[in-house]
Design a protein that fits this description.
This protein has 58 residues and is mainly α. 88% of the residues lie in helices and 0% in strands. It starts with a helix and ends with a helix.
């Protein structure tokens, strides 16, 4: 999710502890997204391997 200039201005006005907490939450969200992408890539790789193996057997 892209951050707008207005959002950055508002973020800069927050006290440090609130800004840190929001940034930590954002990092956690990004980590979760990356884990989901990794899991999907592993699944795709596995499915592709099954398809390739099936073609070799025929």
């Amino acid at each position: 999710m892209q951050v707008t200039e207005k959002e950055l201005e508002l973020l800069e006005q927050l006290p440090d502890h609130q800004r840190i907490r929001l940034l930590e939450e954002r990092v956690i969200d990004l980590e979760q997204t990356l884990l989901e992408i990794r899991d999907n890539l592993i699944l795709c790789n596995s499915l592709n391997a099954d398809v390739t193996k099936g073609k070799e057997e025929t």
